[in-house]
Amino acid sequence: MSANQAGEGSYSYSAAPKAAPTGARTKYRDENENSAGVGGGEALNLMSDPRVVRGSTYAAKVVTVAGKADMAKKSGKSLPRRRVGGRRSSTPPPVGGRSHMDMQTDEVLEELTDRPIELEASTQTPAFVDRPPSPLFVKARIGHDVETQIMPGDLFNFDLEVEPILEVLVGKTLHTAMLELMQEEELEAIRQQQDEFEGIRDVELAEVQRLESEAKRRAAEKERRLEQERKRAAEKRILQEKIAARSFSQQYLGSLHTNVFDTLEGEGFFYDPVRKEIEDIFLADVIKELRRQADAYVAAHQVAFELLENARIVSRSFGDEAIMLRQLLAERIAREAAQKAAYEAEMARQAEEARLAAEAAENGGGEVEA
């Protein structure tokens, strides 16, 4: 394996791979042939291979002190020395005149040996006899039983050591009761504030609905006025067309009538004086009256247009006022929401300060008792 390949994490063989040698091996094994390997060396037996761990794969392998010593001797290493004066358990210190010592506290003592005792035994039972139930395994007692006596007050003093626990329990109960009381008061204050806010919101909602209905009525009135103006303009256009047609016919027929009468008068025919008087005098007055009425229609149109323009300006001012009121309402609602959030933050801060003060008082009381 080269250095570059080792640095990159890849591997390669020193020789190119090739097929395993078969030699003159036959298809079937010869019974007299030695069970040697391919290379002619000793046969590989898994039962004698030291790299194969034998025994149960579920149970831990027990290694005795002698076995550890053999393994250390074979490997050339020394056994680690036992540490003296290590970390002691959390057992209370002994009373005066006594000392602690390590001992085995199992129910049954078991002697550890390098090799367990092995015995061979056999028995024969008839096939038709049922096998009796196996007895419970009970370890044999090995060694000597030793007992000790603990007098009252050797380990701990109940009256002295229960006092901090009682103080913590009572202090925690009082703290929890204070927190529950503060929470109930805060909930009551929030409920009152919500009721006030809902009342103000209902009043403002009614005012907004009133303004919206008023704007709708103004829009409907404006649409109705515009429709009336469109109808009036259409009627005026028809009237103007009629007047123009009458004027054109009057001009055309008047000149024609005059020419005819002039021709007839020149030729000696008499004309009707009453008809001529009606056409020249009466109809002229009628046309003048029609023109006067048309001018009155034009003036009325201008007045109506001015009224509609004033109404549009007034409606726009009302709409701007409604938009401004709605913006003011939104700003006031946002301001109230901000005030509510600030009030909730202040209440949370006060609750946290009360909690911290209670914890400080509790910790201070614990230190004084200590």
Helix content: 55-70%
With helices defined by DSSP (H or I, 4 residues minimum), what is the helix count?
4
Note the main sheet.
Answer: none
Q: Span between N and C termini?
A: 70 Å
The class by helix and strand makeup works out as: mainly alpha
Count of DSSP strands: 0
Give the helices and strands as they follow along the chain. Answer: HHHH
Any low-confidence stretches, pLDDT <50, length ≥5? 1-9, 34-41, 82-86, 366-370
Q: What's the shape?
A: elongated
Strand content: under 5%
Q: Supply Rg.
A: 61 Å
Determine the mean pLDDT: 76
How would you portray this structure in words?
The chain is mainly alpha-helical and about 375 residues long. The protein has a domain at about 160-370. Helix content is about 60%, strand content about 0%. The relative contact order is 0.05.
Features:
mainly alpha, 370 residues
Produce the secondary structure layout.
Elements: H1 3-8, H2 65-75, H3 158-267, H4 273-369
Helix pairs in contact: 3-4
Summarize the structure.
This protein is an all-alpha fold.
